[in-house]
């Protein structure tokens, strides 16, 4: 049969659907003949035939809608859904005409939404998902697995944890795509939801569903966030034993996890074994090197990345600049900042300016840092002012520090961390009344300080400690060990650096306050609960204070332990009385 000829009455009556499908590319006049033939033979009274006719019609929405309204069949959700499918991915206006508004023709069903949700932008998908629950009821996802998966995907793409979890909990037996959708949305907020990810993964493993690469990426990312090295090693072993693909996504997650757990050796092994290397994997390794203070190694890897022709993006440049900041490589950081736009086509963003201010401030080039802030094309943010205030405290620049404090409070007057930083600054300058005034200002505004906390992984169990915490089951033994540690430190001639305590109280009281910082409690428990000689790994939510840093160096020598501490800005590897940061942090 010629492609321009209409099918015969006999061929349509015998098997209409194949004949209709063969005419998808037919000329417009053939479509008119086909439409007439369906009407005269009565085949248009069958919904599947008419649905294909709708898809074969011209791409005009009005033409297809007119066909639907003038059909010999009353309009149905089935035909409307067929019409929507014909207009993907731009079917949202048609959906509104058919199902929404005062003149809505029909009511949607569970087949209306899945394809429409997946073809829509995240914002449109979120609105559609909300409509689907309104029309179909909250329990629709449990009755139809395809709809449930589409809803999970829509909420996950928008990062909406609560509705995503609500849909998931209504699915009687979640399959792998459902688990992956939920874990993925939690993984996007891994900093806050890492523990929940591991809990969900435990539930998944207790079911009959087995994870795949997508699942493991979310789980490995959570392990890195928590510093749960034992769980991360298990996940890596699972990938290898099950012969899952160690593609660039899995490899990147593993590199990030190992660097965040303090195992640069394992991160380098994974990185060296990647076959389908990409920019994201390079960025993960560069960020890890920066986090551990390996500035020269980061520059060497960056040169290799450029020589091999990989795309350098804004994350790459920022990672290398951070590596320069932590290693005190001022000239190298300045050179990269100056040429990033010309050589790599990466326009400096606020994060790059902030990192450059940090590089200059750490090195004591405070006037240059202030000049950079004043000459920026974009408004400075609070992070820049905080960085420079901290540098002024270290280098004893009171006047510049006070100016930066005024700017910081103008930009971010309500953030608790700012007032703590200001108090620390004045305490370093021994201006006790100003330090107290900053604390009182914070309290009068109803702003609470984020408590310092430390996470410790012992045999796969995570223990959390707060400053002065006495809620741990082994609290009595912990405090006894703290006293023992302090006694041995005193015997070695260690005297607490009490400028880390903010108030003008007796020196002895300040020393007591320092002894109960969260990381010291974590170290004391690790010395009790882990085998002699075993490394101690601690994740701290705040920047380690100078006295805890100094005392931890001594503990590593006195007790023969390697102590790997991750604070808010970088890693510190304490071994034999020294720290990998070289006291530059």
Provide tags for this entry:
63% helix, mainly alpha, 6 strands, 585 residues, six-stranded mixed beta sheet, 32 helices
Describe this structure in words.
- The protein is mainly α and 585 residues long.
- The chain is 63% helix and 5% strand.
- The protein has a six-stranded mixed β-sheet, covered by helices on one side.
- A hairpin with a 4-residue loop joins strand 4 and strand 5.
**Low-confidence blocks of residues:** 6-17, 23-27, 502-512
Give the oligomeric state. Answer: single chain
Shape: globular
Assign the structural class, choosing from mainly alpha, mainly beta, alpha/beta, alpha+beta, or little secondary structure: mainly alpha
What order do the strands of the largest sheet run in, or round the barrel if closed?
Answer: 2-1-3-4-5-6
Number of helices: 32
As a whole number of angstroms, the C-alpha radius of gyration is 31 Å
Percent range for β-strand residues:
under 5%
The CA-CA distance between the termini, in Å, is 79 Å
Q: Give the proportion of residues in helices.
A: 55-70%
The major β-sheet equals: 6 strands, mixed
* Total strand segments: 6
Mean pLDDT across all amino acids: 83
Helices and strands, with pairings:
Layout: H1 9-14, H2 16-21, H3 28-41, H4 47-56, H5 61-69, H6 77-86, H7 92-99, H8 114-119, H9 122-136, H10 140-143, H11 145-157, H12 161-170, H13 176-187, H14 190-206, H15 213-226, H16 229-241, H17 248-260, H18 264-272, H19 279-291, H20 295-307, H21 314-327, H22 330-344, H23 350-362, H24 366-374, H25 382-395, H26 398-411, H27 416-428, H28 432-444, E1 453-458, E2 461-466, H29 475-491, H30 507-515, H31 518-529, E3 536-540, H32 546-558, E4 563-566, E5 571-575, E6 578-579
Parallel strand pairs: 3-4
Antiparallel strand pairs: 1-2, 1-3, 4-5, 5-6
Helix pairs in contact: 3-4, 4-6, 9-11, 11-12, 11-13, 12-13, 13-14, 13-15, 14-15, 15-16, 15-17, 17-18, 17-19, 18-19, 19-20, 19-21, 20-21, 21-22, 21-23, 22-23, 23-24, 23-25, 24-25, 25-26, 25-27, 27-28, 29-31
